[in-house]
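S.,

Sequence below, as promised.
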Amino acid sequence: MTNMDRRGVLRLTSAATIAGGLVVGAGGAAHAAPRAARRITLTGRRTGANIPEVLTVGVPYFVRYDLSDEQGDSVGTENAHCLPVVVGLDGSSVLATLVLSLDDGLITAATAFQRPLPAVTESPVNAQPWSHVFAVTGGTEAYEGAVGSITIDHLTRDEDVLTIDLADASL
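The prediction came back faster than expected:
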């Protein structure tokens, strides 16, 4: 497995964000109304995926989850598009873009992460919990000008917990 330096990862993350069409227009953040920092916790249940049996460099896959709030009410969907850039016996380096389509707007995010699994897909039994963080790249409606992060804790193969930390957009 090849090691990537931080600059390379950032460059690839930026490319993935642009390729995914997730860049906010130049004026988007500048015109956003200031809002207080807030934390949103959602639970995701996998409803679709096209993860191949063996991850291959340059072959994208997607994962889709239905999202619910802390009261169990449906609030939207999560769609992650992932691109393995390095694949090895001990895991893979993946670029990912994320779109949360929530009842009150969209939140977009991007990341590069080390998937701590072999080059084959995760087993439906005895899945090992793991997590990674996305940087928020923008949003619409209630999330216009959004900045912050989204942490996804993969508790099982089909269930996630998303913690969305939005910063004060006026900072």
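Strands lie at 38-49, 61-68, 74-88, 91-102, 105-115, 130-139, 148-154, 159-166.

Coffee later?
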